[in-house]
Amino acid sequence: MFRRILQRVDFWLIWVTVVLCGASGAGAHSCHEVKTAFQLRQIGSLKWVPEAPGTDGELQICKHPGPSCCTRKMEESYQAAVRRETLQNIRSYSFELKYLIVGHSSAFQDTFQSLLSFTLNLTSALFDSAYEPLSQDARPLVADLFSVLSLFLGGDGNTSMEHSVHRFYDDLFPLVYRRLVNPGLASAPPSSEHSECLRKTRQDVNPFGPHPRALAEGLTRALSTGRALSRALMMGAEVLNATERAGLARECGRALVRMQYCPHCRGLTLIRPCGGLCLNVMRGCLVGLSELDGPWRHYVALLQELTGALAGGHDLELSLLGIRNHINDAILHAQLHGPRISAIVDKVCGPLTDTPSVTSLRPTLEVMTSVTTSPTSVASTPSPAEVTLGRLSHTRRSLPLKPSKIDKPRSLKKISREFMGYIQRYRSFFSALPETLCESEMVGEDFTCWSGEDVVESYVGRVVGNGLQAQKNNPEIKVRSIDPILVAARDKLEQFKQEMQGQMGWATEWGAWVETGSGTRGEASGECDDEDGCQGSGEEDFTDENERVDVATAGVPLGKSPGAREPPHQVPTIQPPPQVAVKAAGHTPTHHPAITITLITLLFALGLP
Question: Quick one: where's region Disordered (predicted)?
């Protein structure tokens, strides 16, 4: 009985042993798994994969003693595939960064254009309501000015704000001179020679006082941040496009094949590279991208500075909204100094015609017995803008000063804060890219891994750091040079950094700021303001400011700001009489910017723009 049991046990042991040995032998002499992986990854034609291991003396990368499932044609296919896969992985990680920069660049430009469109209509309405004789001819001049503003904010390198503003006033002067300063000349046919003389001598005659220079300087100063941001975002997109065009060196392709596909030659299709091996290979392959790390950190610091400046104030919006007031003040200055301007123009350009009598002020002026006459004695039909502002002055406490948080349009401040929060995550993008690629599914976390030559428990080679200098000691890849495309991108970033430091005056602050990587001068990213729903942040100040303006401007001739200096070459003996007051039919008074902001906010709240 016992012998029969032993015989049966021996029979089953022998049968199992034969089956296992047969299966093992079949697996050892077949390249089926290699062919399957070759097909699944779409590496190349299956005809290059042998059915069983053999010897190929032409192998150049995956050489090893013993039979191999690889051929020379397979090595070539592996090199093409590994280049394609690596570049695709790099693009997939940089896509989010590129989308962030390009998307917010578009968002900023849309906001800039919205502000420009609104202030263009607001400025054109000034001529329609207050200076109707100029309206038709002034509209193209205003449109040209705002077209230049659009180019300037968009980062156009050939746009001069000062030149464009002065050209606007040069073209405006002939209209103001013939139709407002000397309305009797309006019926006379205009002389092209006389108009050209007025344009060329406008800055010498100085009919608009200090207002053209104030507008040019104010716009240049306030819009320079938005312009610099537009240029910086375009530069970032160019750099990322350059990284996509850059290729991989021949030595990199060989190292990648040795790391990823040489195990397949031994039938080890599931083994993964060791972490140290992957870091050395990737840091050697991406040395050109790693060289962008320093300039890129400065670039991100610049973006945070610029967006922080936009998020921390309303200088850009106030400057655009103030164009209307600057133009209005300039025209009023010309009207109030009509006799002096006419006398100078007659001497320089000659009289336009001898028939009409030249008057220094508009026919709608009234001579008052005293400048301190009660407001009711000089009242006139208010303009539409005055009516709207008058309503706001009485209803600003009963109507909401802030638009509802529901369906509120994205403001410049909100876009800036959003961008600041995202871009700071990409400060170390290029230096961390090798680790990012190796932390994906490429590196195995098992007890064994591929060292580049064999299956080991851990990688014993030296792991080098990032940068060109560190690659001299890289045991896996010999780096000879950097892709010229990436060298050009690095130089562009360096040059742009120097240019922006000079223009914005931030050179002394960047060193420590880039090292810490936190904070901005405005510190606006964490503050709460009216736009975010904080209550009670400015209503009382609004009222007090208006009261101070009323007191400060009391007794000042209409159209002249308190404390404004007269042109250095004006003729004091031909000043307008002190008892002359300008009636409201020819102008609209300059209002405080806070009133304008309130008007804009209310219009957005009511959904009118």
Answer: 519-545
